[in-house]
Amino acid sequence: MSLSICSKLNMDIDLPELKKELEIIQRLQWHKESPFIAENVPGLNTTVYHSGNWKVVSLRSLGGSESRTDPGGPSIHDYEYNEMSKHTPYIRKLMSYFGGDIRTVRLSSMGPGMTIQEHCDTFVALQYGQVRLHIPIQTDENVIMRFGKEEFHWPEGELWYGDFSVPHSVDNGSDKHRIHLIFDAYITDKLLELFPQSEQKAIAAKQILCHQNSQPLAVESLKKYQCDFDISAALLKGIFETDDGILGIISGQIKLIDNSELQFWLDEKPLFTLEPLSDGLFKFRGWSVERTIEFKWHEDTLSEMVWQFNCGLHKTLVSIPVTATTEKSTKPRLVEKQCEPCV
Predict the structure, then answer these.
(1) Of 3, 174, 187, 248, which has the fewest beta carbons less than 10 angstroms from its beta carbon?
(2) CA-to-CA distance for 236 and 239, rounded, in angstroms?
(3) pTM exceeds cut of 0.85
């Protein structure tokens, strides 16, 4: 049973209210669209697939930055609404349906006659535990989205899911701006209820993981996971949304910051925060539970971290030896929790 490349979701949308808020936002500053690129990773390069006439207003972003137009990714920051969102109470109301499981919220404007070249947005699809959803606010029948060899026109005021991990492109063959409300969300049972019934069955068959909130650990528990390690730079391609692999070996650390949270560092620079799912099992802040790090012990000594990369039924495990940097590391007594698939 295969997943659909595009699906119209069942959600009531008040299009006139969206258009009212768009009128206000159109008078404010829009920024050039930019893809996510992890900070402090040596050698990363990201390709831009448009000529520059693609503008974005971020309402919710990593760290709440108004200038960040990217969709987010693993980070030391979490997602927050910014001052722009105060102009969009109806959009905030729509997003409240999903609770705290929303990542970024953006208004995206694509200029008349513009083309977004074919590309893939890595890891943005159901099978990766997170989705990108669109609500067209202003569009035209001559705006065409292509996913592989299939063509779609998404009408105004409808909620659509697309598998943006496959090659896709957009042509605005009209004389007006195509403006969509675009938001990224973690997979939850509540979100899946919006999908057609047939799609829900396919999702269940793929054993896609539902999002889980982090479970706070005491400082003494967090201290046990401080360590040093060497990581293959090529592995970073599987961690971050990027188009270029990197050669070589990079030194890394897991550090306890401000006695409150663990961070993943490379070459003495922070990349992302580790959020505990249980004692010994962590997810990346800013990302779904399709990627986790589980710490392993040899007798009573911290010895390795195991990275798990999920894609539905497909799972990849990568073991990286570590050297504990605390004076004493004691194996946790709690039963380790595993991520559960959506029901």
Answers:
(1) 248
(2) 5
(3) yes
pLDDT tens for each residue of 72-111 = 889 999 999 999 999 999 999 999 999 889 999 999 999 9
Q: How high is the pLDDT of residue 99?
A: 87
Residue 173: phi, psi to the nearest 5? -90, 20
Pairing of strands 31-32, 54-62: antiparallel
CB 203 within 8 A of CB 342: yes
Whose CA is closest to 29, among 53, 56, 48? 56
Count of all residues that appear for the chain in the document:
343
DSSP state at residue 33: -
pLDDT at 209: 87
Q: Are 266 and 71 a contacting pair, CB within 8 Å?
A: no
If phi > 0 it is left, if psi is from -120 to 50 it is alpha, else beta; for residue 259 that is left
Question: Is residue 53's pLDDT more than 70?
Answer: yes
Contact 152, 145 (CB under 8 A): yes
Query: Closest by alpha carbon to 41, among 215, 259, 241?
Result: 241
